[in-house]
Amino acid sequence: MTVDHDGRIRMDCSSPYAMAGLIELKDNFDIAFGNDTDADRHGIVTKSVGLLNPNHYLSVAVDYLFQNRPGWRKDAAIGKTLVSTSMIERVAASLGRRLSEVPVGFKWFVDGLIDGSLGFGGEESAGASFLRQDGTVWTTDKDGILMNLLACEITAKRRRTRASFMERSSRDSASLL
């Protein structure tokens, strides 16, 4: 584990200091990832960008999920905490999906994930979860491994890295991101 900017060890998978070892290997893999010690947050590294901004990735994840999960309820909303990135709001609007903005704390997403009225819940610390493909609940807590595996799915399905998908999405939908 590499040390953070102040010489301390932190398990922050969004920190380029903590993820330095993985970032150094970025050219060896299409996509690589790490998690914090309890695996509720994600850190994703791609060849073209290096360590992705986790909030940018949450926005792309929402965009991808709501276009690739036909088993989800048509009225399933997108959940975000009040202090999460506003990019999620713009993605929700572009998809024609209701946005459910909640106070800080993942607990506010639980009921919606359980009953399927929320397809996705994400918070400012890059913690997120989403429904199974059939629209049933997977977990009611943040799941960094799930977000990492989604990045692999996006990479495999798009036949390009998640970062290049994000770059294309930004270029094609400048008003969104």
Word description of this protein:
Mean pLDDT is 89; it is low at 172-177. With 177 residues, the protein is α/β, with parallel strands linked by helices. The protein contains 6 helices and 7 strands, in the order H-E-E-E-H-E-H-E-H-E-E-H-H. A 4-stranded mixed sheet has the order 5-4-6-7. The N and C termini lie far apart (33 Å). The longest helix is centred in the C-terminal third of the chain and has 15 residues, at 144-158. 33% of the residues lie in helices and 16% in strands. The protein has helices at residues 20-24, 54-65, 87-95, 110-115, 144-158, 162-172; strands at residues 31-35, 42-46, 50-51, 77-81, 99-102, 118-122, 128-130.
Radius of gyration: 16 Å
The total of helices stands at 6
* Adjacency order of strands in the biggest sheet: 5-4-6-7
Distance between the termini: 33 Å
Q: What is the beta-strand fraction?
A: 15-25%
- The shape is globular
Low-confidence stretches: 172-177
Order of SSEs, N→C?
A: HEEEHEHEHEEHH
Q: What would you call the structural class?
A: alpha/beta
Q: What would the average pLDDT be, to the nearest integer? A: 89
**Helix share bin:** 25-40%
Biggest β-sheet description: 4 strands, mixed
Say how many strands there are.
7
Features of this protein?
177 residues; alpha/beta; four-stranded mixed sheet
